[in-house]
Amino acid sequence: MSTDAQGQSSLRVLQRDRSTEPLKVFCGHCGRSPDNESEADSRVCTKCGLGLMLQAPADAAPGPSDPFLVVDGALTICAVSRIAERLLEVSETEAVNRHVAEFLVPADAESSSGESLASLLAWAARGETPSAQVVIRPANTFGVRYWARVGPCGPPTAALLVLADAR
Amino acid sequence: MPRTCSDSLGVRYLKTSEAAALLNVSPNTLRAWERRFGYPKPQRSPGKHRLYTHGEIAALKDALQEGLSISSAVSRAREGLSADADTLIGALSSFDRERADSAMEAALALRSIERSVEEILLPSLEELEQRHGLDSARWALAARWASDWLRRAQRLTPPPVRRVSLLIGDASRDELDPDAPAIRALELLCARAGARLLCLSVRGIAGLGDALAVAEPDAVVLAGGFARDDEVARWAYSVRSAAGALPVALYRREVLRPLRARTTGAAHLSSAPSEAQSQVLELVEAGRLASEKRTSPTRLVPREKRAG
Ligand SMILES: [Zn+2]
Where do the structural domains in chain A lie, given as residue ranges? Predict the structure, then answer.
C-alpha cells in the first residue's frame, strides 16, 4: 500500500480541514435525510427501515436521487443504495462482502484510473477527503459511463462512491 | 428493560415489541428485515406470536453499531452463527467434550434450542461423519457426546403439558448409528412441544403390552433405518394388537414393506426434527378428529396451531 504522501502526490488530492466542513446525514439505503433531531439520532432510518444513518461531508454526500455505494478499506462493498441496486441490477444483500471491482471498473482501461479508483477509495476509507472524480462503468456493461465522486463517510469510517451519469 | 421469558435451558426469548425496543426500531421494521434479510429469524409461540432469542437480537444490535448497512450487520451476525458450528466441530475433533459443551452454550445464547440442535449440533455431527467416517474414534466420541447432550436437555424439559402421548420405536443400531442423534433430537423437540414420550428399541417385544397400558400412545413413530423390516413389523404388530390401530409415522426410515401391506399407509416425517415434530403432532390431531367422528368425544383437546 502506498503511503499517504505518495498517494497524495500521485492522485493530486486536495486535503482539506475536515473539522470546518458541514456534514450531511443520510440513509445508506433510501438516501433520504432526517427531518428532525430524533430521526437523526436513530441508527436505523426511520423512513425506510432498511438502511443505517450515515454522515458525510456535504459536498461528498449523495443527493436524494443519486445512486451510491459504501466501500470499506479492503474495497469490499458494505452498502448499496436503493437506486444503485436498480442501476447495477444487484441487491445489496448479494453485493455486500464482495469486491467493488466485481461491479464497477474504470471506464478507460488504458489510463491509470483503475489504480486511481482503488487508491481513492482506500484513502477515503481512512477518513481522508479526496476531491477527485473518476469515470467508471458497470463491470458487466460497456457503453455506460458514470462519474464517480469519492469521499469519506461513516460511522464506522468508510468510502462513499456517488455515481452520476456521464454520457 | 424488557420483560423476558426463558426456557428450561436458559434461552431468553423476546416478543416482537421487546426485540424492536432493544434495537430501537419499530415492530414493522423488524418484520420487514425478516422478509428482506431472513434475519432475525423468530420462533413462533403456540399462539403463533414471534419469539426472538435475546442473544440473536443482542448480536444484531452490536452488529448494527459496527456495520454500514443492515445487510452487512446481518452478515456479521450470521458469521457469528456459523462460527459456533466450527467451534463445535473443532472441539469434538480434538476430543474436548467440555469445549463442545461450551460451543453449545454459545449457540444457545444466540438461538433457540430447536435451532441450536438443527443448525449447529446435527450439521456438526454430519460433518464429522463425512470427515472421519462412522468407524472412527472421533465419530464415537461425537455420537456419545451428542447423545448425552440431547438426553440432558430432554431431562431439563418441563413436564408434558399436552395430552399427547407418543411411542417411538427405535430402529437404530446403537449410539454410533448416524440416525441415533436425530432420533434423540426428535425426542427432545417432541418433549419440548409438550408431548409425553416413550422411546423403546424395536428389539424389545416381550411385555410391550404392559408398557402400552401405561403410556396410552396416540401415535407410533418408527425411527431409524437399521433394524430389518420384519423385525420392525413384528414390533409394530405387537403394538397394534395391544393398543389397537394407531397412526404410524416413519422417521429416517424408508418404506416398511410388510407394514405397508396391512396398514392404511404410514406417514413419512421430514428428516428435520423440528418439522417432523410438527408433522407428528398434526398426525395425532388428525387421528383424533377421525376417531371423534366415529365415537363420542371423551378426550377433547384444544386445537393447537402448528408453529412456523
Ligand atoms: Zn432510508
Answer: 23-165
Q: Mind listing the pLDDT tens digit for each residue in A7-43?
A: 333 333 334 445 556 899 999 999 999 998 888 888 9
CA distance A34 to chain B (A): 15
Q: Who among B23, B25, B69 is closest to A78 (CB)?
A: B69
Ordered by start, the domain boundaries in chain B are: 5-150, 160-294
User: Residue B194 above 80 pLDDT?
Assistant: yes
B160-294 CATH pick, 3.90.550.10, 3.40.50.280, 3.40.50.1980, 2.40.50.140:
3.40.50.280
CATH for the stretch B5-150: 1.10.1660.10
Does the global pTM surpass 0.90?
Answer: no
B72/A51 CB distance under 8 A = no
Q: Which helix (H) or strand (E) holds A113?
A: helix A113-125
User: Could you report the predicted ipTM of this complex, rounded to two decimals?
Assistant: 0.81
Contacts of B68 in chain A (CB under 8 A): 28, 52, 54, 70, 72, 78-79, 153-154, 156, 158
Taking CB atoms and an 8 Å cut-off, how many pairs form between chains A and B? 64
Which CATH number applies to A23-165? Answer: 3.30.450.20
Angstrom distance (rounded) from CA B72 to CA B70: 6
